[in-house]
C-alpha cells in the first residue's frame, strides 16, 4: 500500500463513515482490507484502491463495512446495563405511566448483542410492564452485520462472552454448534440501516439512546454535530448512554452527566431532578411487549 493509497482511504473513510485514522494505522487497514482484496481476486490494496477510484460503488461499500465493523458482546461492560435496570427503567416507568410506552434506540448496534441484551432485561421484568409498548430500534452502518443481527444466530464463543448461562438456556435454542435467540426476543427489536453522519430525524423521538463505542472513532467536530442531533431526538427527560471512553464533557452542553452514574447523561434542555435507583431495583421482574 502506497502513501497515496492510504491517504485516499483515510479521506474516503472519514467522508463515508466518520472514521478518523491517524497516520500510523496502516497496519489496521492492511489487516482488514487484504482479506477483502484476496476474496475479490485482487493482488493487493493498491489494486483495490484503483478499482474503488474507477467508481466501483459495491467495492467502496465493502471497504467501509470492513473498516467499521467492530466487535461487541452481550451485556458489554455490565455497568450500563445495571444503570438501565436500576436507574433508567424505574425513572421512565414512573415518568411514562400515563402513556405506557417507551422508545429505545441502539445506535451502532453491530451484530445485535446490545439491543438483545436490553430486550432480555425487559423480558425478565415480567408483569411490571405488562400492557406497555416498548420499541427498541437498532441501527448500524453495515448491512452485513444487520443481517446477522436480524437472524439472531450466534456462535458458542459469542454466547459465552457476557451472557449469563440462565439467559442462554431460557432465551436461546441450540442448533449444532450455533445458538439462535428465540423469536419472542427477536421480535422486540427493529433493525434498520443508518449512517450517523446523515440525517436521522426520521427515526422520531426516544426516551433512551444507547450510543456506545462508536463516537471514539470520530473527530471532535463530528462528535459535537452528532451530540447536537441526538439531543433533538432525545425526550427532554430522557437519557443518553455512552461508552466508557466517551463523554460530552468539554464538547457540548446539550447533555449533562447524571451524578454517580458513569456513562449516563440527560438532555440539558430542562432542569431534571436527580434520580436515585429504585429500592430493590436489582430484583425487578419485567415483561416487555414485542415492538411493533
The DSSP helix count reads 11
Number of strands: 10
Query: Which ranges are low-confidence, i.e. pLDDT below 50, for 5 or more consecutive residues?
Result: 270-292
Taken in chain order, the helices and strands follow as: HHHHHEHEHEHHEEHEEHEEE
Please tell me the overall pLDDT.
87
> Helicity range of the residues?
25-40%
**Which range does the strand content fall in?**
15-25%
Outline type? globular
Radius of gyration: 20 Å
Layout: helices, strands, pairs:
Blueprint: H1 3-17, H2 26-39, H3 45-53, H4 57-68, H5 79-95, E1 101-106, H6 113-123, E2 133-140, H7 143-151, E3 153-155, H8 156-159, H9 165-171, E4 172-175, E5 178-181, H10 183-186, E6 189-193, E7 206-211, H11 220-233, E8 234-242, E9 255-257, E10 264-267
Parallel strand pairs: 1-2, 1-7, 2-6, 7-8
Antiparallel strand pairs: 3-5, 4-5, 8-10, 9-10
Helix pairs in contact: 2-4
Structure description:
The protein has 292 residues and is an alpha/beta fold. It has eleven helices and ten strands. It has helices at 3-17, 26-39, 45-53, 57-68, 79-95, 113-123, 143-151, 156-159, 165-171, 183-186, 220-233, and strands at residues 101-106, 133-140, 153-155, 172-175, 178-181, 189-193, 206-211, 234-242, 255-257, 264-267. A seven-stranded mixed beta sheet has the order 6-2-1-7-8-10-9, with helices on both faces. Strands 3-5-4 form a three-stranded antiparallel beta sheet. The radius of gyration is 20 Å and the shape is globular. Mean pLDDT is 87; it is low at 270-292.
Amino acid at each position: 500500500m502506497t502513501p497515496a493509497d492510504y491517504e485516499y482511504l483515510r479521506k474516503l473513510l472519514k467522508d463515508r463513515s466518520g472514521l478518523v485514522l491517524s497516520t500510523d494505522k496502516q497496519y489496521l487497514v492492511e489487516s482488514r482490507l487484504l482479506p477483502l482484496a484476496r476474496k475479490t481476486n485482487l493482488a493487493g490494496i493498491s489494486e483495490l484502491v484503483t478499482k474503488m477510484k474507477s467508481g466501483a460503488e459495491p467495492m467502496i461499500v465493502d471497504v467501509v463495512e470492513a473498516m467499521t465493523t467492530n466487535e461487541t458482546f452481550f451485556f458489554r461492560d455490565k455497568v450500563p446495563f445495571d444503570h438501565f435496570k436500576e436507574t433508567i427503567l424505574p425513572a421512565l416507568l414512573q415518568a411514562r405511566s400515563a402513556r405506557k410506552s417507551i422508545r429505545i434506540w441502539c445506535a451502532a448496534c453491530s451484530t445485535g448483542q446490545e439491543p438483545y441484551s436490553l430486550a432480555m432485561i425487559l423480558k425478565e421484568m415480567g408483569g411490571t410492564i405488562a400492557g406497555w409498548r416498548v420499541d427498541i430500534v437498532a441501527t448500524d452502518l453495515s448491512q452485513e452485520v444487520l443481517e446477522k443481527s436480524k437472524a439472531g444466530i450466534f456462535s458458542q464463543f459469542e454466547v459465552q462472552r457476557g451472557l449469563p448461562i440462565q439467559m442462554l438456556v431460557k432465551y436461546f435454542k441450540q442448533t449444532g454448534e450455533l445458538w439462535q435467540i428465540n423469536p419472542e426476543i427477536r421480535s422486540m427489536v427493529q433493525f434498520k440501516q443508518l449512517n450517523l453522519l446523515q440525517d436521522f430525524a426520521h427515526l422520531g423521538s426516544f426516551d433512551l439512546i444507547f450510543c456506545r463505542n462508536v463516537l471514539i472513532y470520530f473527530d471532535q467536530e463530528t462528535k459535537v454535530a452528532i451530540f447536537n442531533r441526538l439531543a433533538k431526538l432525545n425526550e427532554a427527560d430522557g437519557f443518553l448512554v455512552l461508552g466508557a471512553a466517551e463523554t460530552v464533557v468539554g464538547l457540548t452542553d446539550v447533555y449533562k452527566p447524571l451524578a454517580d452514574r458513569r456513562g449516563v447523561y440527560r438532555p440539558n434542555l430542562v432542569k431534571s431532578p436527580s434520580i436515585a435507583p429504585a429500592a430493590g431495583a436489582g430484583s425487578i421482574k419485567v415483561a416487555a411487549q414485542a415492538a411493533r
